[in-house]
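Q: My labmate handed me this sequence with no annotations at all. I'd like to see what the chain might look like in three dimensions before we decide whether it's worth expressing. Could you predict it?
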Amino acid sequence: MKIVNTTSVFPPCWDPLNALTRLASIGYDALDMAFDYCVQEKDFPFMTADYENWACSLRESAEKLGVSYTHSHAPFDASARGELVERSLRCASLLGIRYMVVHPIVRREKDFITEDDEFIAVNAAAIRPLLETAEKHGVILLSENLLWGASIRSQTIARLTEEVNSPWFGWCYDAGHAHALHDSLESFRNVCRAPLSLHIQDNHGTGWDEHLLPGNGTLDWGDFLRSLKAVGYAGEFVLEAHHQPLDAPDEERDAILTDLLGRSKKMTAYYNSLC
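A: Here is what I predict for the chain of 275 residues:
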C-alpha cells in the first residue's frame, strides 16, 4: 500500500517542483496533486497556455526521484463544465494520475440537499456528462463524503457511485469528515461499494474539519483500519492531514511531514497484518 501525501501541505501556488523534491527527500513515494491550490494565481503554470509542457516536465522530475503522482483534487465541483475540466483532466493524465476527487453538489440554490434520493439524483445527473472526458484522459473521478446535507453520509456517497455505475466513477472516503460529523464506522462497514481512495486526517469529533495528523485527534485508527479491511479496500493510503504542516513556519514543515510519514508507516503495517 503506497503512502500518498497531498501537495496542499504547502501554501497555495507553492512551486510544485520544490514540493515534489521535499516530499521525495522525506521518503514519500507518491503524491496527490492539489489542483485546487493551482488556480489561485493566473500566472501559475497550471493556468497558462504552457501547462502541458509544465506537467510533462514535472512528471519527468518525479520519475527521476522515484516518485509518482497517483491522485488529485479537482479545482471544481460536479456542476462544472468547460475548459477547466478539460485542462485538469488533461494535466492529470500527463502527470500519470489515476484518480481525481470532485466534490459533490451539496446545495439547491441556498439550501443544503438533505434527502439522500434527491442528492443522488442531482449528483448522478451532474457527473454523467463529465465521464466521457474522464475516460478520454484515463482518469477516474471520485465523489467524497463532505460536511453538509446528505453528503455527510458515506453510505449515500457509495449509493451515488452505484447509481452512476461507471468504471470511470467511484468514491473517496474521508475519515476525518466522517468522524467530525459522527458518520459511524459501523455505517461505513455497511457501504454498498468499497471506496477507491481515502483521505486520512484527524479531528476531535466536534464538527470542525481540523485536518490533523492521525493520532492528534480522537478518531480510533485501529477501529478505522479494521473497518477498512472489512469493506475490502484495495487502494492507497492517501493523506490529507495538511493543516499542521501548512500552518507551520517553513523551517518546521519537514519535521512535521517526517512525523506524519512515520505514523503512516505504522498504520499501513498494521493494516497489512490484518487477515
